Amino acid sequence: MENFFILYILICIYLVYEVKNPNAHFHSSFVIHFTFNAFFDLLSTVCVLVFRRLPQWELATEYFLTHQSAAKAYKVLFFQSMAITICGNIIMASNRFFALYNPLNYKRIWNVKISFIIIIFQVLICYASYIHILCAKTVFKYDNQSQSYNFSTPDKTLSLTNNGVLLFFCIFGIIMLSVMNFLISLKFKHIFNKDDHNKYGSQITMLIFMCLTTLFLIITSVQLVVRSIAIDTNNTFMKYTMNNYFFYSIPILNTLQPYLILILSHQLRKDVLKFLCSIPHKKICTSNGDKVKAISLNDHNNNVMRK
């Protein structure tokens, strides 16, 4: 997982560095949302790891039991970061949809100012949706049924509300992405002709990405529905099982963005490959057309000395 986030951060650095390049492949609005989402994707994955997996692995148990700061951090980070991650994926898909569906107005309308306004509202709406949890009691305790420690909100109504808010964001995203998938399919239905695959490869890739995002939102929604049923029926073991699934579904959803951008951009793939091959093997990579050639550091120094 650490390799994934290293790749994610590397792509962010590259995009920010290239944003002022007039020939940059990605528009500044995309770079802003991508970089912002990278932070919260990392945060949400860390939250799932710390607040769900560490208790299951019986790590840091003593600290969680003796420090109230852990429960307070759970209240202000866990659900909010996941909501922002889900919204971030919806916004990124919307950004790409707009760029494909209406490219003439995309750069004019979805500019840097609009991007920051969207981000501000994204954070405010997600945190406002969980304002109730800030006043709720959150505990870290041992559950006999699941035979593990876990963070939880004892109040059943508030716990169901926590689930309901995330479920609302997921369903909203499913509806939006389904509509966008349908519109993209209608506009670019000719891309499925054999002769057009190479010419419209980016549109096909984008459509696949949006379908994958929709699929993982559906999976997350099903998990939230089952978790709500478990909370309502006091089935602690089922709730515990659904909590574990979040460790897989949320990080998988987070991985879609960096891999999508690598698939879409040949130049980005080439530059990332140059960087990666220069680190582990201590090589300097040079680009020769579409090929990436690596030469050893000693050979490079010898060539320099000959010159």
TrEMBL record:
<dbReference type="Pfam" id="PF10323">
    <property type="entry name" value="7TM_GPCR_Srv"/>
</dbReference>
<feature type="transmembrane region" description="Helical">
    <location>
        <begin position="6"/>
        <end position="23"/>
    </location>
</feature>
<dbReference type="InterPro" id="IPR000276">
    <property type="entry name" value="GPCR_Rhodpsn"/>
</dbReference>
<protein>
    <submittedName>
        <fullName>Serpentine receptor class gamma</fullName>
    </submittedName>
</protein>
<dbReference type="GO" id="GO:0016020">
    <property type="term" value="C:membrane"/>
</dbReference>
<keyword id="KW-0812">Transmembrane</keyword>
<feature type="transmembrane region" description="Helical">
    <location>
        <begin position="30"/>
        <end position="51"/>
    </location>
</feature>
<feature type="transmembrane region" description="Helical">
    <location>
        <begin position="71"/>
        <end position="93"/>
    </location>
</feature>
<keyword id="KW-0472">Membrane</keyword>
<dbReference type="GO" id="GO:0004930">
    <property type="term" value="F:G protein-coupled receptor activity"/>
</dbReference>
<keyword id="KW-1133">Transmembrane helix</keyword>
<dbReference type="InterPro" id="IPR019426">
    <property type="entry name" value="7TM_GPCR_serpentine_rcpt_Srv"/>
</dbReference>
<feature type="transmembrane region" description="Helical">
    <location>
        <begin position="165"/>
        <end position="184"/>
    </location>
</feature>
<feature type="transmembrane region" description="Helical">
    <location>
        <begin position="204"/>
        <end position="225"/>
    </location>
</feature>
<feature type="transmembrane region" description="Helical">
    <location>
        <begin position="114"/>
        <end position="133"/>
    </location>
</feature>
<feature type="transmembrane region" description="Helical">
    <location>
        <begin position="245"/>
        <end position="264"/>
    </location>
</feature>
